[in-house]
Amino acid sequence: MKIEHIAMYVNELEAARDFFVKYLDGHSNDGYHNKNTGFRSFFISFDDGARIEIMNKPEMVDSFKELNRTGYAHIAFSLGSKEKVDELTAKLKDDGYKVVSGPRTTGDGYYESCIVAIEANQIELTV
């Protein structure tokens, strides 16, 4: 068994797509739009086969997102090396994204950093 994809609703669909493409080397499809419901989505694919579906529809509720909350906490991306984690963390910080931890080695041995991106959702970068 494998996870086929992860999906998330966003307010700014194109901005979310551009984030995954620009910073995480994702590849976007041309998108989908259901003109009857207003639902729109993009699938972002990554070289290892993982996919994220980003979606938008009219009249969504956008609640405040605490970093320490129940539910899904973050999406983690393995970049392959500590140097790549350091470089992308610095680039995201320079581009105005909030780094909430790291880069650092955690108590359980992960080298990681955590960034708040895509409408207050957390992204983890690791080796």
Features of this protein?
127 residues, alpha+beta, 2,3-Dihydroxybiphenyl 1,2-Dioxygenase, domain 1, 2 domains, four-stranded mixed sheet, 9 strands, globular
How many helical stretches?
Answer: 2
N-C termini distance: 24 Å
Number of DSSP strands? Answer: 9
**CATH architecture term of the largest domain:** Roll
Q: Name the overall outline.
A: globular
CATH overall fold name of the largest domain: 2,3-Dihydroxybiphenyl 1,2-Dioxygenase, domain 1
CATH superfamily of the largest domain: 2,3-Dihydroxybiphenyl 1,2-Dioxygenase, domain 1
**Which runs of at least 5 residues are low in confidence (pLDDT < 50)?**
none
Mean pLDDT: 93
The multimeric state of the shown protein is single chain
Question: What gyration radius follows from the Cα positions, in whole Å?
Answer: 15 Å
Please give the largest β-sheet.
5 strands, mixed
Sequence of secondary-structure elements = EHEEEEEHEEE
> Which CATH class of the largest domain is shown?
Alpha Beta
Number of domains: 2
Overview of the structural elements:
- The strands form 2 sheets. Strands 1, 2, 3, 4 and 5 form a 5-stranded mixed β-sheet that branches. The chain has a 4-stranded mixed β-sheet with strand order 6-9-8-7.
- The protein contains 2 helices and 9 strands; from the N terminus they run E-H-E-E-E-E-E-H-E-E-E.
- The chain has helices at 13-24, 82-94; strands at residues 6-9, 27-28, 32-33, 40-45, 51-56, 74-78, 98-105, 111-117, 121-126.
- The chain folds into 2 domains: 6-56, 2,3-Dihydroxybiphenyl 1,2-Dioxygenase, domain 1, CATH 3.10.180; 74-126, 2,3-Dihydroxybiphenyl 1,2-Dioxygenase, domain 1 (Roll), CATH 3.10.180.10.
- The longest helix has 13 residues, at 82-94.
- The relative contact order is 0.18.
